[in-house]
Amino acid sequence: MSKIAIMGAMPEEVAPILEKLGQYKTTEYAGNKYYEATYNGVELVIAYSKIGKVFSTLTATTMIEHFGAKKLLFSGVAGAISSSLKVGDLIVATKLSQHDLDITAFGHPYGFVPEGAVYVEADKGMIKLSKEVASDMGKSVVEGIIATGDQFVANEDRKNWIGKEFSADALEMEGASVAVVCDALSVPFFILRAISDAADMDASFSFDEFLETSAVESAEFVMKMVDKVIAD
Ligand code: ADE
Known about the structure:
Strand order of the largest sheet: 5-9-8-6-10
Bound molecules: adenine
Helix content: 25-40%
CATH superfamily: Nucleoside phosphorylase domain
Order of helices and strands: EHEEEHEEEHEHEHEH
CATH class: Alpha Beta
Structural class: alpha/beta
Number of domains: 1
Number of strands: 10
Distance between the termini: 10 Å
Shape: globular
Number of helices: 6
Radius of gyration: 16 Å
Largest sheet: 5 strands, mixed, barrel
Strand content: 25-35%
């Protein structure tokens, strides 16, 4: 089994994973720390990118091109768009889009640039495995569309616009950029998020309150996914 990358955006998102591994080697590279460990006989590289599309692009690329990861799993938190998603709920991305990518002035749809695509699809095999993990854990996980942008959304109108324009169920700040990198480099990827807030006027308070617990929910699930991927 080849090397697997596990990525988050914030320290809180990877801390539970490092805690579970216990022992790892730390390497500083390109302004971030990368943690390497062997887990059930498989090499892992773990990192948090810092927030946003640019930093997450750098980290995903580094994990693949420098550290040699052949699969990537992302763990983190998201704001809910769909009213059925509550704090702590888990969402698996089927496909992802950049909600703040806008050259509509030239007649293109939101989220599109020439030679790109509005959506990038996540790996179907790992999505299938996530259903088995959910049933093993007795947890419910929903599949949905995730919209990504360099904005912490704390505004009902903006949230609703993103929901409508991209049929998105949740939003965050890294998934689509990681998806673009993985797709371009032919690395299968899986993006999981636990809801921390509803991207409304209370979002920043909810985020601060639930970041840690939701990040743990997501990380526990992603580690079970890693077990499944290794066994697969
Ligand atoms: N990640 C978690 N909540 C978010 C929000 N409201 N906006 C952007 N990214 C988020």
